[in-house]
Structure prediction request, 273 residues.
Amino acid sequence: MPAHRGCRLFFHASAWVAYALISVAAAGAGNRIIPEFSISLDDARQMTATLPAELRVGIMARPDKFLRLMAQVLDQPPYLFVLVDKLHALSPDYVPPDLVALKDYPVRTSWPHLMLRKAIIPAVLEMVGAAKKEGVIITFSSTYRSYDYQQGVYDREVKMYGKEIADRESAHPGLSQHQLGTAIDFGTISDGYEKTREGAWVAAHAWQYGFTLSYPAAYEQVTGYRYESWHYRYLTRPGALMQRQFFGDVQQYFLEFLNQHRPALEQMRTGKN
Ligand SMILES: [Zn+2]
Prediction:
């Protein structure tokens, strides 16, 4: 995890505010990319300036499509896109308000006590049903974890493997997506998972139901965690599409961008105020 990211974020935020103000002032109806946002090509160029080059080029090649999909993302409940990573913590007392027990639904679980947010259950059932039709049973092995539970998980990892390894594999309490109640560890929770039939199905199809891989291979410098083929987070269907089509299928890039630009995007959205 680059140590300078906090500074970069601050710099981006102030640069963005400055240019958002200029843009709002300058936004004539003529230079909008699409009517739904008072965003010009110049605005889009500045907004994407700090993204990796290949992502920036991809967005600027189809900025209209990008903004139309962004409008759909902004229409989803914001809590589904909260950035939780090594720099963005949830408070110790954060508990999702609508947790339900998975044992009350027709899904296979490794443990009886697993819970998820009720809001994502329809997507869960849709995905499980689609897999089943193809003869694949999806197993839910770890879902919501409270702050205190995560503390126990992390402490145990440190005890067993030492702090360095624990930090690559297990989140500090408050920094785990599992506390959101929208993250899931599937199947074996091990490196072999992607080679199982279930793991291959999930890798190919989970996005179609709004679930995306949080810690992809070869992005440890970006996400802070080593590759976890079993760990997914629910980002809604438009969110999963956005991640795939415009952020190189790297959840961290997408959520960082959204976290940074959401206030301005919402402010520059027309007809929604
Ligand atoms: Zn996990």
Notes: The pocket of zinc ion is lined by residues 142, 178, 183, 185, 231 (CB under 6 Å). The first strand starts at residue 99 and ends at 101. The chain has two domains: 5-75+258-267, 99-234. Residues 45 and 221 are 25 Å apart (CA to CA).
